[in-house]
Amino acid sequence: MANNNTTTTLYITRHGQTHWNAERRMQGHTNSDLTELGTQQATWLRDAVQDVDFAAIYASPSTRTYHTAEIIRGQRTQPVIPCEELKEIGLGSWEGQLVSEIERQHPAEFFAFWHAPQEYQALNGGETFAQVRERALPKVNELIELHTGQSILLVTHAVTLKTIVSSFEDRSLARLWEPPVIHPTSLTKIAIENSVARIELYADVSHHQVKPSSPQLEKSAQGRSV
Fold first, then answer.
1. pLDDT at 69 (0 to 100)
2. Measured between alpha carbons, how far is 79 from 58 in angstroms, rounded to an integer?
3. What is the mean pLDDT of residues 187-209?
4. What is the pLDDT of residue 225?
5. Does Isomerase appear among the keywords (predicted)?
6. Is 16 annotated to bind ligand?
7. 27, 160, 167, 221: which is deepest, by most CB within 10 A?
């Protein structure tokens, strides 16, 4: 029997907590491995979506995101498909540096990054928020078209996820950092039908067994470390 479902559903998540998240270092394109808590976070999400029939699983090729996607995949047999367009914002010379040091050495640029993203110029040799949007959104739209009537999982990063969702809610770059906070493995769910998007979940952490209000999770939140 033909599948007459025309609703395409995106499940989008961020990777689990990494060592650099816990240390408050900026990551960008550079990788830092999942902590024990980060692995647990991915496992909690795996259990929460175990009954979802994903037609495909796409992940940023960064080790932290790809590893998260492999855990969430669980017993499913399909491969995790690496997707360059889902990588985090490139942070150039900031990558690997402590947030406190970046704020001290580059106060104006640091302020723009977190408080005026539409004005951020990426003088560190990385990417602007607009450049992330320009590479990520066409790919997401391509995947929506490819998987019409199906559910897919995208495993990405805080800035990239915010950029993707902002396009569906018509949120400007100036408002990018407004709540909700993108905690590790928080779940966002967007249903698209007849080119109309409905955000059903945004940064949901109800599956977390250690809640974001705890000191342990606060260190792994968006928390000025991407």
1. 98
2. 9
3. 96
4. 77
5. yes
6. yes
7. 160
Domain regions of the chain by residue span:
8-89+128-218
Is 106 marked as binding a ligand? Answer: no
Residue 28 labeled ligand binder? no
SS3 of 109, please?
helix
pLDDT at 150: 98
> Known binder of ligand: residue 18?
yes
Q: What is the pTM of this model?
A: 0.93
Q: Is 15 annotated as a binding residue?
A: yes
What average pLDDT does the segment 166-195 reach?
96
Residue carrying structure tokens 């491995």: 33
Check the CA dihedral 60-15-187-94 and report its sign: negative
Provide the 10 A C-beta neighbour count for residue 41: 31
How far apart CA 27 and CA 32 sit, in angstroms, is: 7
Tokens of 209: 């067994």
Side by side, which strands form the sheet with 8-14? 80-82, 54-59, 151-156, 8-14, 187-193, 196-204
End-to-end CA gap in the chain? 45
Q: What's the CATH superfamily of 8-89+128-218?
A: Phosphoglycerate mutase-like (3.40.50.1240)
On whether the CB atoms of residues 32 and 21 are closer than 8 A, the answer is yes
Coil, strand or helix at 8? strand
pLDDT for 12 beyond 90 = yes
> b/e per residue, 166-196, with b = 16+ CB within 10 A?
bebeeeebeebbeeebbbbbbbbbbebeeee
Residue 27, SS3?
Answer: coil
